[in-house]
Amino acid sequence: MVTAESPPVPRHVAVIMDGNGRWARERGLPRAAGHRAGAEAVRESIQGCRDLGIEFLTVYAFSSENWARPKSEIKALMSLLEKFLKDKANELMDWDVRLQAIGRLHDLPESCQNQLHETIEKTSGNKGLTLILALSYGGREEIIDGVKSVLDAVRNGHIDEAMITPEVFSQHLYTRYFPDPDLLIRTSGEMRLSNFLLWQISYAELVVLKKNWPDFRAADLAECVDEYASRHRRFGKL
Ligand code: FPP
């Protein structure tokens, strides 16, 4: 049942893009080929979100835990990211997409950080979809960074300890400029959150698809949104 509290189209969709490696293995290809195909699926999802009128799309592109992968895979992912940011900048402009990023961005290679900031700056005036890349991102790490930021604010006398509420704490997270996700999509069948947006997804609807991320198409996004629209979000109330 769709209620006033759950409009049929989510404002913010977050995606755990899983299964690039499996997609490549099934085709006898190197893992990097799976990530390349995954980047194309991101492009398709951006278009899908625009067509559906979704305002925010957050994609989990590189987790804090991904730093433990082999150096060669990290290198391939970082150069793919840099290439994506460079090659797609004009497309993002044509599509009126504003790029943003969350995570410990200072951990990224310098050339990647420079390209990221350049594309963020270039697209900053766009008014359509906001695409948020989660990079070197971990939900627990974000909460720790948020706690440190709140402690600083208390120490500096900007806020009183008694004023710390969930709303105030949210203002100390990387995501302070965005609404919480309404819908969380995960591909490739695993029923896990993998340290993604732990604070923000408290009331998000979850949809897990069996297919691997590189096979994700705009039609799959539309199906997930239909599923979301069929849910009755109660936010803990009756
Ligand atoms: C999970 O698949 C995916 C990642 C670790 C990275 C996601 C990256 C992309 C989709 C491409 C780059 C993104 C942008 C925005 C340019 P996995 O490798 O864990 O797959 P597996 O579980 O099948 O091994």
Description:
Helix content is 42%, strand content 14%. The chain is of the alpha/beta class. The chain has a single domain (12-138, 182-229), classed as Decaprenyl diphosphate synthase-like (Undecaprenyl pyrophosphate synthetase), CATH 3.40.1180.10. It has a six-stranded parallel sheet, with helices on both faces. Helix 5 (110-122) links the parallel strand 3 (98-102) and strand 4. Helix 2 packs parallel to helix 3 (71-87) and helix 3 (71-87) runs parallel beside helix 5 (110-122). The longest helix is centred in the N-terminal third of the chain and has 22 residues, at 31-52. The protein is globular. The mean pLDDT is 95. Farnesyl diphosphate (FPP) binds at residues 17-22, 35, 38-39, 42, 59, 61, 66, 80-81, 84, 133, 213.
First-residue to last-residue Cα separation: 13 Å
Global Rg: 18 Å
* Number of separate domains: 1
**Largest sheet report:** 6 strands, parallel
The class by helix and strand makeup works out as alpha/beta
Bound molecules: farnesyl diphosphate
**Order of strands side by side in the largest beta sheet?**
3-4-2-1-5-6
Q: Quote the CATH topology.
A: Undecaprenyl pyrophosphate synthetase
The DSSP helix count reads 8
Number of strands: 6
Which range does the strand content fall in?
5-15%
> Any guess at the CATH architecture?
3-Layer(aba) Sandwich
Helix percent reads 40-55%
- Indicate the low-confidence ranges by residue numbers: none
Give helix and strand order, one letter per element, not per position: EHHEHHEHEHHEEH
